[in-house]
Amino acid sequence: MSPRTAAAARLVAVVGPTAAGKSDLAVDLAERLGGEVVNADSMQLYRGMDIGTAKLTEAERRGVPHHLLDVWPVTETASVAEYQRLARARIDQLLAAGRTPVLVGGSGLYVRGAIDELDFPGTDPQVRARLEAELASEGSGALHARLAALDPPAARAILPSNGRRVVRALEVIELTGQPFTARLPAPGEDRAVYPALQLGLAVERPELDERIALRVDRMWRAGLPEEVRALERVGLREGRTASRALGYQQVLAAFAGACTLQEAREETVRATRRFARRQESWFRRDDRVHWLDAEQAASGEATKRAWELVERTVTS
Question: In the chain, what are the domain boundaries?
Fold first, then answer.
């Protein structure tokens, strides 16, 4: 299926799996557009989670303003609805100022929540408490199996180890009587709040697997275990969302004596590869995404192709 062209797009979204090069492409495009970057990576919203989330340094941002980084303490429980509120407020501010927002991230639901007509039902304390008690007694795997029976697409999009998101999906199903994914636009259905040019970076699986292994090695050399230790002192282990982040979860397990740091590093590679496959599967279902070859990024070809699409579709 060929992607649909976004006519008169008001913003650009750069999406795709982890380690594909999204952040660098977003900076390239923002520089050319005179735009600003808006983060859509759920874990980069946390303060102090820099190495393990591959957050760009100030130098790597090349003077381009970045928004929605370092918003929450690691003790805060993430909420897509709260992110949606923050992202839309910032997007509206940028558009009003004549600046083009460049949304970037691999958290599919965050991207959809920012740009699409997507409402999130409230929570029921009794239902939530019961599901969380079941999570504690049965484990996330058992609840994930229940979700897979009720809503297979949601189960494919949510890691079995992410108990918080599994509980939320089951809660929404119970409260609404509909699958969690029923609230998302169907394939081919465009319910955009902000018409957007969506650019996806695609990497062949063997190349992506290698990129992920190299990235994790760089994170360890840059001091990920030390970063986790410092964040542990300010509540990371108690953070219901931040403590489940890739790399952080594995290092915390090593600190608790469940494995060695070397085993934690190896498991981080494996878990990140699994997550990257889920990310690509999520974005491939949206036929609005224009896919670019990430391996061409080093030569500038990916940026050139992206800019050709931007020139045809984006209006400020």
Answer: 11-118+194-313, 125-183
Q: Which residue has the tokens 């840059």?
A: 222
Decide if 179 contacts 150 (C-beta within 8 A). Answer: yes
Topology agreement, domain 11-118+194-313 and domain 125-183 = no
pTM confidence score: 0.84
Phi then psi for residue 43, to 5 deg, are -85, -20
Cα dihedral 283/284/289/291 (nearest 10): 110
From the list 196, 24, 13, the residue with the least C-alpha distance to 103 is: 13
- The CATH number assigned to the domain with range 125-183 reads 1.10.20.140
Is residue 191 within 8 Å of residue 118, measured between CB atoms?
yes
For 70-107, how does the pLDDT look when each residue is reduced to its tens digit (9 = 90+)?
999 999 989 888 999 999 999 999 999 999 999 999 99
Class of domain 11-118+194-313: alpha beta
Q: Cβ of 190: how many Cβ atoms within 10 Å?
A: 13
DSSP-derived 3-state class of residue 147: helix
Q: Return the ∠ at Cα 80 (arms to 32 and 34), rounded to 5°.
A: 10
